[in-house]
Structures are given as structure tokens and as C-alpha cells.
Design a protein that fits this description.
Number of strands of chain B: 8
Order of helices and strands of chain A: EHEHHEHEHHHHEEEEHEHHHHEE
Order of helices and strands of chain B: HHEEEEEEEE
Oligomer: heterodimer
Number of helices of chain A: 13
Largest sheet of chain B: 5 strands, antiparallel
Strand order of the largest sheet of chain A: 3-2-4-7-1-8-11-10-9
Strand content of chain A: 15-25%
Number of helices of chain B: 2
Largest sheet of chain A: 9 strands, mixed
Shape of chain A: globular
CATH class of the domain at 53-142 in chain B: Mainly Beta
Strand order of the largest sheet of chain B: 6-5-4-7-8
CATH topology of the domain at 53-142 in chain B: OB fold (Dihydrolipoamide Acetyltransferase, E2P)
Structural class of chain B: mainly beta
CATH architecture of the domain at 5-120 and 212-221 in chain A: 3-Layer(aba) Sandwich
Shape of chain B: globular
Largest interface: A-B, 33 and 33 residues
Bound molecules: zinc ion
Radius of gyration of chain A: 19 Å
Radius of gyration of chain B: 17 Å
């Protein structure tokens, strides 16, 4: 396989962007990524774009050609990729294979979602399409409710506390307050998390990611500042209830094992990571399933500050899904943009010193799919 | 969004807890599967229907305050993952119990209830997509209740 590198990234503001359209957002992110890579548009040979459900969010399927047309790239392949909340991460996976194989030399990966054009009730129905429709949704499950059931079991089995989960949101909001593109720029306290409205007990509104608009893009080439040394995917059962252990995301365990092996590193070599904190318990579970911490210890490590900006393994320096925001298709791409900025030393007030290896973990739905990627500064 | 045939198709499982069993490896599935994911081609033609008891144990649960569409009138409701005595696990609601009565490990048994009604469609602020389709299926009650 040929080396695959990132040579530029672009990201838009994340948030409730009433005046910005779906197509404007992805074009803006793409232009910024090309500018960053110092490459002309005509050099792009293939386009991968992630979007979880534009047909539902903005009544527009067949979004690939629309993006190609907007950017004057109708003569090259454009591939739309979907895997629930892991859509952006999976688009990177496909683009990685493309450059590694030698088929194309310069490939753009974009991710976009425009979630605030629909009402709250419709948005809930769209999010629910990532669950098992026949055997979860019809019975009254929602995505936060599934995460709440993971949280309850994690608390029961390992003694994880309500406060430890709140600390994830507090940390991520603090990090997001230093990120100019974040959906939420405000810091929050544990008390604020614990007094926000209950969505699904024990999870509250401030445990869960918002509905955001936004887009992010990357330029992949065979030479660049940051090398992608592994990008692996695995899936699991669509329904949470079918998993042997409700508190383990098999797909995160599976994809990360393959990724460490391919990268030739151990979990302890990772210096910085962006995880999929759709709900606070998600970040805790993934930090265990990725091998960073012993099973059951994730919550304790967050409360001890191990994963804070000044800790030994900073997690979600961007603010994560919780604070940076979660425009679904863009999320997996935005995670990589943060790791890229950190590894080349331009993350501003969020900058972490002395980094060698960064990791991104994107998760679909309640853990039906995951992509784990590992990056190294060149 | 959901036509009547989609609901009707799954009725034997949703109404009567009909699952199936792979006679190669003995694994029990609910809902029934076309093939056993463990034995794959070896299980073709060797999947047998099995009637599940509907009894089981709570693996984990939550109380839902921000409901799924079609479930607004029941809010807040208890949602649980139940491990059936025959092995498979399912997600459904626990009814007729106080929020403090449910625990991980509680014994439950199945009851047939209305799951969801597609009415209103937004015009009257009601729930559902306006198709009028009513979905029935299993919910659970604590063992010893009816
Ligand atoms: Zn079998």
C-alpha cells in the first residue's frame, strides 16, 4: 500500500446556521481545505462526501452530483458514503483506500449535514432511522434512550457515577469554548448538567450532542504533513439489545484492534484523541473499548482530569460532538481536522505540546458501526 | 411512513413471540432469522420455529421523557432491554409499574398492548404520521402482576 497523508483541512462554523444552505456549507469547507493544501480545484481526482440523510434533512438525495456541479468537478467520480453518525469517518476510510491503492493521487473527503431546517419532532424521527426500526424504534426507543440504558448498566456494573458522566460534558464545553467554530462557546458546570431536563434517565439534555449545521473537508494525497497510518472499520448488531455486553461497543474494540495492529502501536502510544461523545457515556465507553483505560475506569479517569487539555491523554480538544457540535455527516471529518491541526501545531489556545500519534473514533448509531483512524506527524 | 403490510408482516413475532432456533448450533433467535449468522449456509433449511415463553429478566432500563414519535401520550415511559429465558434479548416498555419498582435483574413477563398509533400527523399537534395505522405488540409487566 502507498502512504496516505492529509495535506489540508477546511471547516465551517458549526451551529444553527439559519442563513446557510446545505450546498453552501460543503462548498465552503471544500474551498478552505484546498486553500489549506495549496492545490487548485482542477487537481482533484475523486470526491467522497458523507451525509447521513440529506433526503430527510433537506429533501435532497442524489447529493453527490449536486456537490460536484457546485464545485465544477462533474468529470470526476463523486461517491456519497453513509453509516449513520459514522458517515464522515467511513468516507475517510474509502478515500484512504483510494489513495493507498494508487488509483488517485489527490482526493477530497467532505462531510456535511444541515439539521436545523426541520422541526424538533421531525428531527427526532430522522435520528431514529439510525436505530433498528422494526425492533427498537416501534417499541419507543430513541438514540438518547439507548445510550441511557448503556449508562445505567455501566453505573450498575462498574460504579460509574452521574457526576463522572457530567464531567465529560463540562470538559468538552471548556474545550469548545476555545474553538472558534464550535456550536456552543460557553463553559458549563456539573450542576448545570445535573439540573438540565431529563431526556432519558439518567441522561439529561446537557449529556447529549445538539443538532447542528456544518461541514468539514480534508485533502488526501500521498505526501503531506500528517500521515494516516491506519484507518479501519468494523460493525456490530444494529440493535443495542443484541450485543453480548451492553456496556461494550464491539465495533470499537474490533476496529481499534485492527488499527493498532496496522499502525504498529499500542493504545498507550496515543497522545491525543477525538471520540464520539454523542452522549457523555459514549466517550467513557469508547475510552475503555479503545484500550486507553481498563473496562469500567473511564468515568474515573475523566473526573481525575486525565483526559482534560492538561491531562496525559487529552480527549476531544475540539469540544467533541457535545460542544463543537454534531452535523452528522461532517462529524467524522471534523474529528480528523482537529487532530490534523493539533499534530501540525496550529490549534491555538487548545494546542497540546509534544504530540506524535493522534486517534479518531467515529461511531454509528448506538454502536452498530465504528471507524478508528490513527495519524502520525511527519 | 409505514404502510399496514409492514406492520402485518411482523405480526406473528410481535403478537405471539414466535422466534426460531438453529438446529445446527442450537442458538435461539428473536425475531426469527432467515439464516443463523453463526452457521450461515449450514443453517439453510435447518431453522425451526420456536414459541418463546415471553418471560425474562431486565438487563437495563431507562425512563424516557423525550419520547419517540407516536409515544407522546405515554410519556414518561419505562423502556428496558429484557433477556428472555430462552436467550434472545429484546427492547420494549414495562407498563403498570412505578418508576422506582424496576431494577436491573427484575423478573418480567409479556403482555400484548398497543405500541403506537399513527394519527394527527401534525395538524392537530397529535402524534404519528397521519396514516391511522395502529401497531400492537409485546410490552412487559413485573412478574406477579397482570
Ligand atoms: Zn447456528
Amino acid at each position: 500500500m502507498r502512504k496516505v497523508c492529509i495535506s489540508g483541512v477546511g471547516i465551517t462554523k458549526f451551529g444553527e446556521l439559519w442563513s446557510r444552505s446545505y450546498r453552501e456549507l460543503i462548498v465552503e469547507a471544500g474551498l478552505r481545505a484546498l486553500e489549506d493544501a495549496e492545490l487548485p480545484g482542477e487537481s482533484i481526482e475523486c470526491l467522497y462526501m458523507a451525509s447521513m440523510g440529506p433526503g430527510m434533512w433537506v429533501s435532497q438525495e442524489h447529493a453527490g452530483p449536486m456537490i460536484a456541479e457546485q464545485t465544477g468537478l462533474t468529470s470526476i467520480p463523486v461517491v456519497r458514503v453513509e453509516s449513520g453518525c459514522a458517515s464522515g469517518a467511513l468516507a475517510l476510510h474509502q478515500a484512504f483506500i483510494d489513495v493507498a491503492s494508487g488509483k488517485h493521487d489527490i482526493v477530497v473527503v467532505g462531510g456535511v449535514e444541515k439539521m436545523t431546517d426541520v422541526g424538533a419532532k421531525e428531527a427526532g424521527s430522522i435520528i431514529n432511522t439510525m436505530l433498528d426500526y422494526e425492533w427498537e424504534s416501534i417499541f419507543g426507543a430513541t438514540l438518547p434512550a439507548l445510550y441511557a440504558m448503556m449508562a445505567r448498566k455501566h453505573m450498575h456494573d462498574y460504579g460509574t457515577t452521574r457526576e463522572q458522566m457530567a464531567e465529560v460534558a463540562v470538559k468538552n464545553h471548556y474545550n469548545g469554548s476555545l474553538n472558534p467554530i464550535a456550536h456552543f462557546g460557553r463553559k458549563i458546570s456539573v450542576d448545570q448538567v445535573l439540573s438540565s431536563p431529563l431526556l432519558a434517565d439518567p441522561l439529561r439534555m446537557l449529556d447529549c450532542a445538539p443538532m447542528s449545521d456544518g461541514s468539514a473537508a480534508l485533502v488526501l494525497t500521498s505526501k503531506g504533513d500528517v500521515e494516516i497510518i491506519a484507518c479501519e472499520m468494523a460493525s456490530s448488531t444494529l440493535a443495542l439489545h443484541s450485543r453480548e455486553d451492553i456496556t461494550t461497543m464491539d465495533c470499537v474494540v474490533g476496529s481499534s484492534k485492527k488499527a493498532y495492529k496496522r499502525a504498529g502501536i499500542n493504545p498507550s502510544d496515543v497522545d491525543i484523541a477525538e471520540l464520539h461523545d454523542y452522549c457523555t457515556i459514549g466517550e467513557i465507553i469508547e475510552s475503555e473499548d479503545l484500550g486507553f483505560f481498563e473496562k469500567g475506569k473511564g468515568g474515573k479517569k475523566v473526573a481525575e482530569g486525565v483526559t482534560s487539555l492538561n491531562g496525559s491523554l487529552p480527549i476531544n480538544t475540539s469540544g467533541g460532538l457535545k460542544s463543537r457540535g454534531h452535523p452528522i455527516g461532517a462529524t467524522g471529518v471534523a474529528q480528523v481536522a482537529e487532530i490534523y491541526d493539533q499534530l501540525i501545531g496550529r490549534a491555538g489556545e487548545r494546542q497540546i505540546e509534544l504530540l506524535d500519534y493522534g486517534l479518531c473514533c467515529g461511531v454509528g448509531g448506538s454502536g452498530g458501526s465504528a471507524v478508528v483512524s490513527i495519524f502520525r506527524r511527519r | 411512513m409505514v404502510g399496514p403490510s409492514r406492520i402485518w408482516r411482523e405480526a406473528p413475532s410481535r403478537y405471539r413471540f414466535l422466534g426460531n432456533r438453529c438446529t445446527v448450533c442450537e442458538e435461539v433467535y428473536f425475531p426469527p432469522r432467515q439464516i443463523c449468522p453463526k452457521c450461515r449456509r449450514a443453517s439453510i433449511g435447518r431453522m425451526e420455529p420456536i414459541q418463546l415463553s415471553g418471560n425474562g429478566e431486565v438487563v437495563t432500563y431507562t425512563v424516557v421523557y423525550d419520547p419517540a414519535v407516536g409515544h407522546e401520550l405515554l410519556t414518561p415511559y419505562i423502556l428496558a432491554i429484557v433477556k428472555l429465558d430462552e436467550g434472545p434479548r429484546v427492547t420494549s416498555q414495562i407498563v403498570g409499574a412505578g418508576l422506582s419498582e424496576i431494577m436491573i435483574g427484575s423478573r418480567v413477563k409479556t403482555v400484548l398492548r398497543k405500541l403506537r398509533e399513527e394519527k394527527g400527523g401534525g395538524e392537530d399537534g397529535g402524534s404519528g404520521d397521519g396514516s391511522g395505522v395502529i401497531t400492537y405488540g409485546y410490552k412487559f409487566v413485573l412478574d406477579g402482576q397482570s
